[in-house]
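Lab notebook, bench 4. The sequencing result for the construct came back, and we need a structural model before the next group meeting so we can plan mutations. Quick request posted to the team channel:

Model the 3D structure of this chain.
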Amino acid sequence: MRRPLIITTAVVSAVVLAGGAFGLGAAVDGGADRHGAAHAGAEPAAHDEDDPNLGTEDGHDHGGHAGSTGTPASYDPAAEPGPGFKARDAGLPPAPPGREHRVTLTVTEQVVEVAPGVRQRAWTYNGTLPGPTLRGKVGDTFVVTLVNSGSTGHSIDFHASQVAPDTAMRTIQPGESLTYTFTAERAGAFMYHCGSAPALHHIGNGMFGAVVVDPPNLPAVDAEYLVVQSDLALGAQDGLAKLGKLYRAEYDAIAFNGYAGQYRFAPVKAVAGKRVRIWVVDAGPSAPSAFHVVGTVFDTVYKDGGYVLRPGDPDRGGAQVLDLAPSQGGFVEFAFTEPGEYPMVSHRFADATRGATGLFTVTAA
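Done. Here's the predicted structure in token form:
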């Protein structure tokens, strides 16, 4: 008779650490913790007060990062941004000409506003949250130079690529760079992110973006938009995302394009009767998305590399939500029937109340 399989915490720990090169556990290179290398000699800092065991999950005390302590930040859904607020443009330009696209992504650390009155010390690609959007067509080649101008090890993982992770996605230390080349062989709306250990902290602290690879024969539309959803697990004001909250998926707010509720304060503009396409990527790291535009019915849904619904459906089907798990992406198409204000939300309403909401202001043609 077979004995029952018993999984102990020691076995689980061994399995987690075995994934360290990807960023689940310790980032190991020749026995060294590369993520912590930049902090050698630093004084030990206080662990996460909510769960002291989380402070050293990857063999490095994350309390040693600048911005790990201070007055806790708090999200107020009723707050409004100050006079200097400027929303990120939700418009998505077409794919640039040519079949090879070269881009430099520089890792920087800077304090950014992520909700009205809420500032976090983000780890970013090119200083924006999310990072720059890359767009191309099936068969295009992307040549990406990653430059680490931060204070700790970082990396990049393009979900649109098919490459050996231990080479192209390796962690590089401050002052280092690497070139990551891939050919987009499959269409879709893909996520990219830092994969250095723990990837949860790097993504939760701002290191993510989108790659849009157009399907062949993608029909023309009158306007295209991009919404990247992400979780905000707030740490100290002007500080880092809270590692303990990220491990427990206890996020304080949900952002569209890096700022909770920003398109309530600066609505996206559209024209009645014109056909629109909205690309959506759920960067997580943990919250799913149920993207919905109130007052519309989607006649086209493209999800994770394939059409779920297209015009001409003999059953005249329509969709109300584009449902995405973390790291999934796709697009919806429709036309606003008349002028007015149309909310866009995650229909996971607990998240809509925490910032996953915005407005389209639609005018007459």
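Confidence is low (pLDDT under 50) at residues 1-21, 25-48, 51-61.
Will bring this to the meeting.
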